[in-house]
Design goal:
mainly beta; 7 domains; seven-stranded mixed beta barrel; six-stranded mixed β-sheet; 15 helices
């Protein structure tokens, strides 16, 4: 349908759309006390409620009942236009034991004075309009407008009427607020209109339809009453992202008129897709007389002049309401002469009236939707963070709010329906969210202004649930209680269509919208940071909050927080295999190297790796392996620039949905994805980006990500600006996620930025270490003007300090320090895997080779590392790098830093003697109870603990001395495990290797494990095992905690299938053996960690379990395996 707002028009209802003055907000909503009932209507017109009906709604004195609100018209998105704060009283006309009032449904009509047409806008958020009833206040009675002298002015005996045929059935783009109707592909559609009392004056007929023409021409034809034909042609640009092109016909119809009018619409190209009728709109003149219980009328002829309306067929029960301003409806003073009723008005703007036959049936009868609990959002002020959510998610939203409150943030959790009640007359409307935030912004000053908005709930591209796929998943009567609203663009047909949460954060007064809201949003600036948690169930909400709180509490620590992955696509045929993604990633790298060298950058640039073209699609197996390995070892952040969709990164499928769903890493990175559609959260299907966040213990902590198609030329500047805000030049300027996104978007003025969204908590910061580390001496020499040169086999001693932002020693820091010692930078160049690409190769550098890792104690803020330098250095006499990290185990305070003022070259002539190989202290599969010869599943987990006095070799510089695993002596089943080795805390010289073995065939196998020290001494060990497909996992132990439990219980499952995707089932029975609760989910857990399922103790029937003794049973099952079960008793206490 046509939803373009003609801001420059003469609008037909001036009382509602006059220029807004500064709003004086009430501090007390009318809903704060008294009895309130919410009622609904669908159409605009005169509504009737009898006293008996009011009594059935619970009002004992119906004569005291008033009506409040303004119905279902969509709120104005241009906040320069006037608007009602809270709920205005609706004027009532009181009859004999009944009341009449004017109510607005969900279709707004406006007069376009440029084209002399009435045009409509449907409410894109609701199919019903809402009002409220209460007997707490004195009801507002309708006043009388005496009009003017009835004997002067232009005589008006006809009026302008309009109707529209429109069926909202399909979305061709799954984006935007426009829905379309009947298909015109290979068929025509005939629509019947009926206008009793029609005159032969010129009429206006409008039609809009769409088709995807694939750069061909198609023609829409409209035939009126079989003899007036008009057509229009359409042609789209043929783009992959253009779903359809619209064609519009606006016809002034001069032919003879009859009460019944037929309009036929057809399209001439049956091969074209997405051919749909949008609407047919008819505007005619009718005789001014009653047509039922009420007749809404207006006359364009009356604009700007005195006018006298002459109504035929009236009687003593005929009334005229002036409904131009619904909050100030007036009873017009009329004169009845026989059956002719007349009244007069002074010159002015277009006015709307209702001719009412008070004694007739046929009025709109509102339906009660329920009682309203007292509320008062207008009391809120000086709130830093608002969380908007739904009742079934409230418990978890409050849990998250409490976590922020504990950190000193003022937070308010608000139900979406409560916002609608006070800010959009009870009618769901996305602008109500913005109105609430603007009220808080306008009422506050300085530091008290709101900073963050969190939308705690999922959303959909069709906010009303009218299209089939959404209707199937969310019945329309439930949709607003299960998802939050989304703000969709008016454009719904091509690449410029978008969904954005930015709209809710534009709170400063803006100039009037010049063209349309889509264009305005490209330049408007956000005033708060906004994030969204796309959770659809209580379970998803619980685990999302659990992840956030654990992250805020710094549950996972380690040197992995110094690691960032920069992933760059090599393009595809659509962009001639551009190197743009790589050069944009290098821009990020340069920022980090200049201002934050303490971070280790892992550059996964596709074209710098060998491309395997033997598969379809071609792949980069080394890139994929390295990326997944980095997730396992831990990343602070991962940044991807390139092609993608809702299911994968790149044409080469470097990352796919199953990688995300089966991930078990608990070191959660922040994801930045400058790729198309990766987090299309408003679709019915769950996107890969959402799955990153919704993975209950793994995936990521949040995403700066995309919801629609984005353009590579625009992504680079945005990505660069985002990194500059995420990692500012000065460490003292660290921003929360929401502020990072706000600052980034405000620095740009383009439509592309609207397609980026924050999935996550906007008030949370990246888990940067707070303090810094600096090296003070190397081999006893103060760090000075000349760099020290380190040789192979040198005994190296590094000393340093933990310092604060003022470079002062932190003397109370006690804990553990870790280091990663890196070889000199390696010069790399892309391989031009796609030889037809016109783009040149690109050179770059990277600290690619790890030489040593280690740890030491920190005492009173000082640390000392000592190690023997391996002979696997590059001997380049160029600078190396040390990456540093420290943790105070008592306070949880972290520090990081780097040191690169040393060179690597030469060999110590006094090489220490070491002829002993490393010690393999343990080697097993899945768990430590394994003994050689045991049966295992097809994808067992190898775990080895090794030690050496000189150090384990983890360098990739020397061929043949990697940590290796060889299955069955087969070189094609050999794996380098250097990247899977980690130092064991508090055990100097000890390293743990954890490696998930790829799927093996059934039967007996051997695994040979080889390890080298830095003196080229090796040790090997071999174990045998039998792979049995379908082998039942061992459920070692199942516990419930707390037990007894009162409000919530966690089931902890210990098993022998770490890092394996499992189906986990929980059952709770009462002592009579009746099943009270069951739950099933898929997931995995890390090595040495329990699998945890949390339960709020609400049974399958929706009721909380009564106090007593229950039996719980847990079951786990892996792919093709049998089920393992174990159970115990659970005691439930009273609330």
């Amino acid at each position: 349908m046509n939803r373009t707002l003609y801001i420059t028009l003469l609008l037909c209802f001036v009382g509602l759309f006059a220029r807004a003055e500064k709003i004086e907000y009430t501090s007390v909503s009318k809903l704060h006390e008294g009895k309130w009932v919410r009622i609904e209507i669908e159409e605009t017109g005169v509504c009737k409620l009898t006293y008996d009906e009011l009594k059935k709604m619970g009002f004992s004195a119906p004569e005291k009942v008033g009506v409040y609100g303004y119905g279902g018209w969509p709120l104005q998105e241009d906040f320069t236009l006037s608007w009602h704060d809270d709920l205005p009283a609706v004027p009532l006309w009181r009859g004999d034991n009944f009341i009449l009032f004017y109510g607005r449904g969900v279709r707004r009509w406006e007069y376009n004075s440029r084209d002399y047409r009435f045009e409509h806008i449907n409410n894109p958020y609701s199919t019903k309009g809402y009002y409220f009833l209460s007997d707490f206040f004195e009801p507002k009675e309708m006043e009388t407008d005496p009009g003017k002298d009835n004997n002067t002015g232009r005589v008006i005996e006809t009026y302008d009427d309009y109707k529209v045929h429109e069926k909202e059935l399909v979305s061709v783009n799954q984006s935007g607020r426009q829905l379309f109707g009947e298909s015109l592909r290979g068929t025509s559609r005939t629509v019947d209109f009926s206008f009793p009392g029609i005159t032969n004056d010129n009429a206006k007929v409008s039609m809009r339809a769409i088709a995807r023409t694939n750069n061909e021409t198609g023609t829409f034809t409209m035939v009126i009453n079989g003899n007036t034909t008009v057509s229009t042609t359409v042609r789209d640009d043929g783009s992959t992202y253009t779903r359809a092109k619209d064609g519009t016909i606006n016809k002034t119809w001069t032919g003879d008129k009859t009460e019944k009018i037929k309009v036929e619409v057809s399209y001439d190209r049956s091969s074209h897709e997405n051919c749909h009728l949008d609407y047919i709109r008819m505007q005619v003149k009718r005789q001014l007389q009653p047509y039922g219980a009420y007749t809404l009328f207006r006359s364009v002829e009356s604009i700007g002049m005195d006018a006298r309306f002459m109504i035929q067929g009236a009687n003593a029960h005929s009334l005229v309401f002036d409904v131009t301003d619904p909050a100030d409806v007036k009873l017009m003073q009329t004169s009845l002469n026989g059956s002719e009723l007349s009244f007069a008005i002074e010159a002015g703007d277009l006015r709307e009236f209702a001719l009412v036959q008070a004694n007739n049936g046929g009025f709109i009868v509102p339906t009660k939707t329920g009682d309203v609990v007292n509320q008062n959002l207008h009391r809120l002020e000086n709130i830093e963070m608002i969380i908007i959510t739904l009742p079934f998610l409230r418990e978890q939203a409050e849990r998250l709010a409490d976590a922020h409150r504990a950190n000193g943030l003022s937070v308010e959790v608000v139900m979406a329906q409560d916002i609608y009640n006070e800010f959009s007359s009870g009618t769901p409307d996305a602008s109500a969210y913005r109105r609430l935030m603007k009220m808080l912004y306008d009422k506050a000053s300085g530091e008290n202004k709101p900073k963050y908005l969190l939308l705690f709930g999922d959303g959909l591209y069709d906010n009303r649930g009218l299209v089939t796929e959404i209707k199937s998943a969310y019945p329309p009567e439930e949709i607003h209680s299960r998802v939050l609203l989304t703000y969709q663009s008016e454009n719904s047909l091509d690449i410029n269509s978008f969904v954005t949460d930015d709209y809710f954060g534009i709170l400063k007064d803006q100039p009037a919208i010049a063209t349309n809201i889509d264009n305005a949003l490209t330049s408007w600036k956000m005033d708060i940071g906004i994030g969204r948690l796309p959770v659809r169930t209580q379970s998803e909400a619980y685990y999302a909050v659990e992840k956030i709180i654990n992250y805020m509490n710094n549950k996972e620590t380690g040197i992995w927080k110094n690691s960032i992955a920069l992933v760059a696509d090599d393009g595809n045929t659509s962009d001639s295999f551009t190197n743009t993604h790589l050069t944009q990633s290098e821009s990020l790298a340069l920022h980090m190297e200049d201002y934050h060298p303490e971070y280790r950058l892992n550059k996964l640039y596709f074209d710098a790796y060998k491309k395997d073209k033997s598969t379809s699609p071609a792949t980069y197996p080394e890139v994929r392996k390295r990326l997944l390995d980095l997730f396992k070892t831990g990343l602070l952040a991962v940044n991807y620039i390139g092609h993608g969709d809702t299911q994968a990164w790149s044409d080469e499928k470097i990352l796919i949905e199953s990688d995300i769903n089966t991930a078990s890493h608990e070191r959660l990175p922040l994801w930045v994805t400058a790729t198309c559609d990766f987090t299309r959260f408003d679709a019915v299907a769950t996107s890969a980006g959402e799955q990153v966040f919704l993975n209950r213990t793994s995936g990521g902590i949040g995403l700066f990500t995309t919801t629609r198609v984005v353009l590579s030329t625009k992504n680079g500047p945005l990505n660069k600006k985002l990194f500059e805000n995420l990692f500012p030049k000065e460490n003292t300027q660290r921003h929360a996620f929401g502020e990072v996104m706000r600052l980034t978007k405000n620095a740009l003025n383009d439509r592309n930025r609207l397609n980026f969204i924050l999935i996550g908590d906007p008030a949370m910061q990246l888990a940067y270490p707070e303090l810094s580390m600096k090296v003070t001496t190397i081999n006893g020499k103060p760090v000075g003007d000349e760099p020290e040169t380190l040789r192979a086999y040198d005994e190296v001693v590094i000393e340093g300090e933990i310092v604060d932002y003022d470079d002062q020693l932190v003397t109370d820091f006690q804990g553990t320090a870790n280091f990663a010692f890196l070889d000199s930078k390696v010069d790399k160049e892309t391989l031009k895997n796609n030889p037809t690409s016109p783009y040149p190769t690109v050179s770059f550098t990277e600290y690619a080779n790890m030489l040593h890792t280690g740890n030491a104690q920190v005492e009173n803020g000082r640390f000392r590392f000592s190690f023997q330098l391996t002979d696997k250095i590059s001997y380049s006499n160029d600078f190396g790098k040390m990456n540093l990290y420290a943790l105070d185990g008592t306070t949880g305070t972290e520090a990081n830093g780097d040191f690169s003022y040393f060179r690597l070259g030469g060999t110590n002539p006094n090489k220490p003697e070491d002829n002993e190989g490393p010690e393999i202290r343990s080697l097993y599969l899945n768990d430590s109870t394994f003994v050689s010869g045991d049966r295992v599943n097809p994808t067992p987990l190898l775990v080895a603990n090794v030690w050496d006095q000189s150090g384990i070799n983890v360098s990739n510089n020397t061929v043949g001395q990697d940590i290796m695993l060889i299955i069955d002596g087969n070189s094609s089943l050999s794996y380098s495990l250097n990247n899977y080795a980690e130092n064991v805390a508090d055990r100097e010289g000890e390293v743990r290797v954890v490696f998930p073995i790829p799927e093996l065939s059934e039967g007996e196998h051997t695994a040979e494990f080889m390890i080298w020290d830095i003196h080229s001494n090796s040790t090997r060990d071999t174990i045998t095992f039998i792979v049995e497909k379908g082998l039942k996992p061992d459920l070692i132990e199942v516990n419930a905690s707390p037990n007894p439990a009162r409000e919530r219980v966690e089931f902890r499952l210990d098993h022998n299938r770490p890092e394996t995707l499992m189906t986990v089932s929980l059952y709770v029975y009462d002592t009579a053996g009746r099943l009270r609760w069951q739950h099933q989910e898929k997931g995995s857990s890390e090595l040495f960690k329990s699998y945890i399922v949390s339960w709020d103790m609400v049974g399958n029937d929706g009721a909380r379990l009564r106090p007593g003794v229950y039996i719980y049973k847990a079951a786990i099952q892996t792919h093709y395996s049998k089920e393992a079960t174990k159970g115990n008793k659970l005691i439930v206490l009273g609330q």
